[in-house]
Amino acid sequence: MSRPRLLPWSEDGKPAYLHTDDPHSVLSQLADQMEETQLSVGDDVLEGARDVLNDPEAGAPELRFAATRLSECLCDALRVARSRGTRLEDYENRADEHEHEDKDEEADGDTTAQENDA
């Protein structure tokens, strides 16, 4: 079983995890959709923040609002990156294990063939 997946949400701001090896489970798909939504919102907030920063008449309240929203979106994006990074490591490790198993099976097969030839 792979490591628990860090979910992109929790009620109290603490990390929440999903334990499953099925990337197509209902909760896995919901988590994927939530991550995509969070990243899309981050794009929108970034665009709005740039507009505020480029406005020479923007005051402290507007700048504070933009900075607060950017901070929230950065937190979401970092959580998504950590979750995806962990899943990518697990995927790469499983691929390496399968590659080694395949090589071991090939080596065992070669030995058997050589023994039969002798």
In short:
By secondary structure, the chain is mainly alpha-helical.
Task: Characterise this structure.
Residues 11-22, 86-101 have a biased composition (Basic and acidic residues). Residues 1-22, 85-118 are annotated as: Disordered. By secondary structure, the chain is mainly α. The chain has one domain (5-117). Helix content is 74%, strand content 3%. It has helices spanning 26-54, 60-117, and strands at 5-6, 17-18. It is elongated, with a radius of gyration of 24 Å. The relative contact order is 0.11.
Percent of residues in beta strands: under 5%
* Proportion of helical residues: over 70%
Strand order of the largest sheet: 1-2
Overall, the morphology is: elongated
Biased composition (Basic and acidic residues): 11-22, 86-101
Region (Disordered): 1-22, 85-118
Helix and strand arrangement:
Elements: E1 5-6, E2 17-18, H1 26-54, H2 60-117
Antiparallel strand pairs: 1-2
Helix pairs in contact: 1-2
Considering the chains and any ligands shown, give keywords for the structure.
2 helices, elongated, mainly alpha
